[in-house]
Specification:
Mean pLDDT of chain A: 95
Structural class of chain A: alpha/beta
Strand content of chain A: 15-25%
CATH topology of chain A: Rossmann fold
CATH superfamily of chain A: Class I glutamine amidotransferase (GATase) domain
CATH architecture of chain A: 3-Layer(aba) Sandwich
Oligomer: homodimer
Largest interface: A-B, 44 and 44 residues
Shape of chain A: globular
Amino acid sequence: MKNLIVASTSTVHGSGYLDYLFPELSKLYDNVPEVVFIPYAQPSGMNYDDYTALAKKAFSSIGIAIKGIHEFKNPQEALKEAKGLFVGGGNTFLLVSTLYKFNLMALLKTLIEKGVPYLGTSAGSNICGLTMQTTNDMPIVYPPSFTTLGVVPFNINPHYLDPDPDSTHKGETRETRIAEYHGFNTTAVLGLREGSWLAVKGRSIILKGPLQACLFIKDKKPKEIPAQTDINRYL
Amino acid sequence: MKNLIVASTSTVHGSGYLDYLFPELSKLYDNVPEVVFIPYAQPSGMNYDDYTALAKKAFSSIGIAIKGIHEFKNPQEALKEAKGLFVGGGNTFLLVSTLYKFNLMALLKTLIEKGVPYLGTSAGSNICGLTMQTTNDMPIVYPPSFTTLGVVPFNINPHYLDPDPDSTHKGETRETRIAEYHGFNTTAVLGLREGSWLAVKGRSIILKGPLQACLFIKDKKPKEIPAQTDINRYL
C-alpha cells in the first residue's frame, strides 16, 4: 500500500529544515532505521555530500539514519534495498534528468507502489505527479522526458502562491501559468501552499497542514480544497 | 546588419500594450509597411487571431500594418517575404516548440542576421539568447530542443525581478535560479528588468530604458550594467 508524504516545501518561514514535518516523519518511517536520500535536485547547486549532510542532521533529531544514494556503489541497488526513501527539493529539471540518466524513474514508481515509505519535498513532490510540467523551476538542463512518477493521479504545483493584487510586475501569475498548461493538457493540477502536504495511503490522498490547497481542473474555476479532506473527492 | 529590439516586457505598469516602445518601433521599422507577427507564445492561452488583433491595434497607432504568420498559407514563405518581424510574449516552451514544428528556428536566425528588423518581447526576447534555459515559464509542452536563435551572445532572463528581502516564501529567487543554471552551463545571463530593452545593431548591444540590467557570469558576482552602455563591454 502506497505510503507517502508529498510536501510543498521542506522548510516553512521561521523554522528549521523539515522541522514542521518531524511528527509526521516519525510515523511515516515507523521501524525504518535508515532512509535513502536522493539529493539529485541540488538546491542552489549544493553538492550531493553537503545536501545529504543537511538531511542527516535533520533526521538525526528523530533518530533515523540517512544515507545518500550516491554513497552506494550502484544507485539501482541502493533503491532496491531501501526501507525508506526521501527525495529533496531543488531543481526539478535536474532531478528528473538525473533519475532518467540512472534509469531510476520506473524503479522508484514500482517501489512506492509496493509501499516503501516516501517523503518528497518541493521538486521531490513535483515528481509524484503525472508529469513535471507544473514545476516552477528554470530549465537548467534538458531532460529526456517530462513524464514523472504518477503516484498521485494529478500534477503538483509546489510552493503555490496566490496572485498578489498589489503587484505591478507583468510576469505571469501562478494561476495564469496553470491556465496556460491547461490549454494543452487535461491533467488536474493541485497548487500546494507552503506548509501543506499530502498524506497518501493506498488510494487515499488527504490534504494536511493548516491551509487549503487550490485545485485546477481544465475548463473549471479553481477550487479551494479544505484541509483534512481527500483530494479524490474533488477530481 | 542585425537590427533588433529585445524587450523585457511588452507592457510596463500603468501603460498600454507596447506604449513605451512606440518611439523606438517607428525607428526600427522605418519604411516597413507591414510587419509579420508570430503569436505562437499565446499568452494566457490566447488564440492566434485574438493575439494578432491586439498587435494590429497597437501598431495601427504608429501607422504600421501587422499580419499574423498564421494568416499566410505557408509560415516559411511568410517569413522569407517579411520586411519586419515581431515575436510576442507568452509561454517560451510553446513558442520554441511551435517554431521547431514549422521548421522556422534556423530561418528566423538567418533573416535576423541578414538585417530584417526584429522586435521581441518577453518570450520573443528569450529566444534571442543562445538557449531558452533562463526562461521563467512553465514547461507546458515538451520542445524538441532548448536551443534558440543565438542572435545575442548570451542568454536573456526577461521580467527580471530583484530578490525581495521581506519575502517569507521559500521558492527560489531569480538570482538563485540563475546560479543553479550556472552550475551546469557557462553562458552569461542578462537579467532584463521590465522597462528595459536591448537595441541591437550589428555587433553593438546597447541597454536602453531607465533601468540597469543585471549580468550574471559563471563564478563571478552579479554585475549591474548601467543604461546606455554596450553589453559587449562586460562579457
